[in-house]
Structure formats: structure tokens, C-alpha cells
């Protein structure tokens, strides 16, 4: 009996790969490399789960993950941005060996390595900030700055690193979503109160509407960020209740 996997390059094409059910992750990778890489290419690859970008052990049986979609990350041919955009820093690449032009190139969606490292890797972010090659508020094609992406996807420590480096806390993306909108999409609890305090000090309001008619309070409710909602109740006395861990908002 065979198992089908939809294996893809991040933001790229996908292929169906069929392997016997007793196979391991390394077997999926070999077939996927053959599908994506030129025969002469020197490819190194790893597999991650799309949900949380956790790298899989290549000896892990696929029977344990057959219900979850994989991403194949290929390291080898292609530009630097293509090679490290998915898991910036999770693959051991010595960025110090690359020139400034390679470090500052952008992907198809307008992101550069500063965007990706803000989302996923503090060590790479520290390296890039030290190089001082970037406008710290550089925007991708959706108008998102590294700070906005860090607020949504990374830890409070990374967000503070960018703020301390001079990132603009009042920046908005192309949908007019603020730092507070993005922060409320994140479910981190420890260390977030300082970030909310900085947002409030910058006069960012939880009921400011984006162009899609969503507020930071909406995002907090949708993501289950009850910590954010509790802070909003205390700070703004919202017409809102927390019921059994869920948020109920009465907009009147």
C-alpha cells in the first residue's frame, strides 16, 4: 500500500509523491528532490510540517505524519533568498560568506532576509541588523515591515530587538493594520505585556478599523488571545466579556 504526499517548495509549485507506507521521511525527500532538482544539482533538503515549521527527523516513519502536509526545503541551486526564505537560519548557512547584493535581494512577494528572519530566527536577525544594510522599516508587497511580521509570528524578544533598533511602531500595512493588529494575531503570553504597553503609549487603539473592517480586538478574539482581551478590558473598559476562556464582544 502507498501513501500520497503533497510536497511543495514554499510559495512554489507542489507535486504529489507516492511512497510505500513503510517508508521514512528521507524516502519522501529523495523522491521530491528528483521531482524538483536538476539531475546535476547539489541539493540538500529537509522536511517541515506546514502547520508549525518544525523540522522532521529523516528517520521518522511517514506513518506517523501521513495526515499532515509537508514542505520540502531545497538548499543548493538558486539565489540566497530562495534557499533560506522558508526557514531562515534553521538550515546551517554561513551568511557572512555572501555579499551585500545577495543579502539584500527580495523574493517574489517583496520580502528580504530581514523580513524572514524577523518572522523566524533571532540569530540571523541580529547578524543582519549588525550589517546595517537595510531600511529597518522596509516593506514587502503587502506593506508589511519586519516589525509587523515579528509581532505576528515571532517572540516578544525579537519584537523588542527591532523596536530597540529603531523600527517604527506606528507603521501600518497596506490594509491599514497596525502593530497592535499584528500583535493580537500572536498567542504568546509571557513578555507580551511590555509590548502592549508600548503600543498603548504610541496611541494604537484596539478598535481602530483596517480597510477590511477588522480591529485588533477582532484579531485577538479570533486567535484566542485572551491575554490581549483582558488587557483591553482593563485599559479601555470595553463592552466585552470573557466566558469560559472565550471572548464575547458586544458592539452595541
Provide structural commentary.
This protein has a domain at 1-77: Ubiquitin-like (UB roll). 37% of the residues lie in helices and 13% in strands. The chain contains 11 helices and 6 strands. Strands 2-1-4-3 form a 4-stranded mixed beta sheet, with helices on one face. A two-stranded antiparallel sheet has the order 5-6. The chain is globular and about 60 Å long. The protein starts with a strand and ends with a strand.
The gist of it:
With 252 residues, this protein is an alpha+beta fold. The protein is built from 11 helices and 6 strands. The strands form 2 sheets. A 4-stranded mixed beta sheet has the order 2-1-4-3, covered by helices on one side.
Write the layout of secondary structure elements.
Elements: E1 2-8, E2 14-20, H1 25-36, E3 44-49, E4 70-75, H2 80-84, H3 100-103, H4 113-120, H5 122-131, H6 146-153, H7 156-164, H8 179-185, H9 192-201, H10 216-223, H11 226-236, E5 240-243, E6 246-249
Parallel strand pairs: 1-4
Antiparallel strand pairs: 1-2, 3-4, 5-6
CATH architecture assignment of the domain at 1-77:
Roll
Work out the helicity level: 25-40%
Major sheet summary line: 4 strands, mixed
Our Rg estimate from Cα atoms comes to 21 Å
Approximate shape: globular
Stretches with pLDDT under 50, minimum 5 residues: 81-92, 241-252
Order of the strands making up the biggest sheet:
2-1-4-3
Mean pLDDT: 75
- Output the structural class: alpha+beta
Give the DSSP E fraction (strand runs of 2 or more residues).
5-15%
Keywords:
Ubiquitin-like (UB roll)
Amino acid at each position: 500500500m502507498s501513501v500520497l504526499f503533497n510536497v511543495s517548495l514554499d510559495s512554489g509549485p507542489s507535486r504529489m509523491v507516492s511512497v510505500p507506507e513503510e517508508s521514512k521521511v528521507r524516502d519522501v525527500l529523495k523522491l521530491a528532490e528528483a521531482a524538483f532538482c536538476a539531475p546535476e544539482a547539489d541539493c540538500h533538503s529537509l522536511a517541515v510540517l506546514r502547520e508549525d515549521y518544525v523540522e522532521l527527523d529523516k528517520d521518522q516513519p511517514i506513518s506517523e505524519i501521513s495526515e499532515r502536509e509537508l514542505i520540502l526545503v531545497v538548499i543548493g541551486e538558486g539565489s540566497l533568498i530562495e534557499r533560506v526564505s522558508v526557514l531562515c537560519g534553521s538550515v546551517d548557512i554561513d551568511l557572512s560568506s555572501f555579499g551585500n547584493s545577495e543579502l539584500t535581494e527580495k523574493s517574489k512577494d517583496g520580502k528580504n532576509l530581514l523580513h524572514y528572519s524577523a518572522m523566524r530566527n533571532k540569530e540571523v536577525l541580529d547578524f543582519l541588523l549588525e550589517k546595517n544594510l537595510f531600511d529597518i522599516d522596509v516593506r514587502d508587497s503587502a506593506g508589511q515591515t519586519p516589525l509587523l511580521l515579528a509581532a505576528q509570528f515571532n517572540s516578544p524578544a525579537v519584537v523588542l530587538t527591532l523596536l530597540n533598533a529603531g523600527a517604527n511602531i506606528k507603521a501600518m500595512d497596506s490594509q491599514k493594520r497596525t502593530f497592535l493588529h499584528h500583535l493580537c494575531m500572536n498567542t504568546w503570553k509571557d513578555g507580551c505585556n511590555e509590548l502592549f504597553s508600548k503600543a498603548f503609549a504610541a496611541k494604537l487603539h484596539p478598535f481602530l478599523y483596517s480597510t477590511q473592517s477588522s480591529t485588533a480586538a477582532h484579531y485577538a478574539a479570533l486567535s484566542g488571545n485572551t491575554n490581549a482581551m483582558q488587557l483591553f478590558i482593563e485599559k479601555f473598559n470595553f463592552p466585552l466579556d470573557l466566558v469560559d476562556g472565550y471572548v464575547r464582544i458586544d458592539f452595541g
